[in-house]
UniProtKB/TrEMBL annotation:
Keywords annotated in UniProt: DNA-binding, Transcription, Transcription regulation
SUPFAM superfamilies xref list: Periplasmic binding protein-like II (SSF53850), Winged helix' DNA-binding domain (SSF46785)
Natural source organism: Variovorax ginsengisoli
Protein name, entry field: LysR family transcriptional regulator
InterPro entries assigned to the protein according to its UniProt record, in alphabetical order: LysR-type_TF_proteobact-type, LysR_HTH_N, LysR_subst-bd, WH-like_DNA-bd_sf, WH_DNA-bd_sf
Family: Belongs to the LysR transcriptional regulatory family.
Domain HTH lysR-type: 1-58
């Protein structure tokens, strides 16, 4: 057996699918099946249990995968030790980023990172949904909000400060709210991961730290961050959004801060990656670089908060 065979087997095991593994690796499904069959013949044990719906590891397969992943990580580190420093990292990486963080913070800084590592190939997903890191083959994800993936390793980066904004046209037409009571005459743009979800409201944090939600009317519900911001710019209502993503619009006079004393609770920002004893050097490098890029825009790490707010 060789490392390429181990990598193919590991991807099948992680995804639970020959087809998905073949798609992500860019090889034919038939080759993936042949590699797994060859490995099983070499070790003299069945490593995967195949059903019509799912591919699962056998007990022998679980032991084989654990040791195989260690060998792959060791090989990656060994290779990196003897690469000329000028050549930088090499290989492929797949990362998922919140749309606004990718647009405003990460992608503008990518040229300098890739210039230092010209042999590295990055696949970047920007989506407002929560991807399955393992099933979809990501090496790491940058996540905003509370963490629910207990099987993953998390690196807390800090807390994302929120602000309340509205368009000048909206405020001219409806007035500027000063208190919670004033919100009865206003509308909010409601963000919900799934359309049809009710419960629009104004979130704010009391002096003691307790988080409250003041019910409000909404004229529109959106499930994407770009639409959320566009609706506010169009004068469709107030929004509560990350400070970093709206700063340039406030500076340009396209949005205006309102009720700064009644802002939503900051949201935790974390980097997540699979729970492995060792990480490939390229993954470690990207994790460290993302930390350096994002941390300066965040406050100190704190408790998790509301899960469904846009980022």
């Amino acid at each position: 057996m060789d490392l390429d065979q181990l990598r193919i087997f590991a991807r099948v095991a992680e995804l639970g699918s020959f087809t998905q593994a073949a798609d992500q690796l860019g090889i034919a499904k038939g080759r993936v099946s042949q590699v797994v069959q060859r490995l099983e013949a070499q070790v003299g044990a069945r490593l995967l249990q195949r059903t019509t719906r799912r591919v699962r590891l056998t007990p022998d397969g679980e032991q084989f995968l654990e040791r195989g992943q260690e060998l792959i990580a060791d090989a990656d580190q060994l290779q990196a030790m003897f690469q000329p420093a000028a050549s930088g990292l090499r290989g492929r990486l797949r990362i998922d980023l919140p749309n606004s963080l990718a647009r405003d913070l990460v992608i503008p800084r990518l040229p300098e990172f890739l210039a230092a590592h010209p042999l590295l190939e990055l696949g970047i997903s920007t989506t407002d949904r929560r991807v399955d890191l393992v099933q979809e083959g990501f090496d790491c994800v940058l996540r905003v909000g509370p963490l629910v993936d207990a099987e993953l390793v998390a690196r807390p980066l800090g807390m994302m400060k929120m602000r309340n904004v509205a368009s000048p046209a909206y405020l001219r037409a409806n007035g500027t709210p000063k208190t919670l009571a004033d919100l009865a005459r206003h509308r909010i743009v409601h963000y919900a991961p799934k359309l049809g979800v009710q419960g629009a409201g104004w979130e704010y944090q009391e002096e003691g730290g307790a988080v409250r939600v003041h019910p409000m009317r909404s004229a529109i519900v959106v499930n994407g961050t770009d639409a959320y911001q566009a609706a506010c710019l169009a004068g469709l209502g107030l929004i509560q959004a990350p400070a970093h993503g709206t700063q340039r619009l406030v500076d340009a006079g396209l949005l205006v801060d309102v009720m700064p004393h009644l802002t939503a609770a900051p949201m935790p920002v974390s980097l997540l990656y699979p729970h492995r004893r060792q990480l490939a050097p390229r993954v470690k490098a990207v994790l460290n670089w993302l930390t350096q890029v994002v941390e300066p825009y965040l406050g100190e790490p704190g408790p998790a908060t509301v899960e469904s707010r846009p980022t």
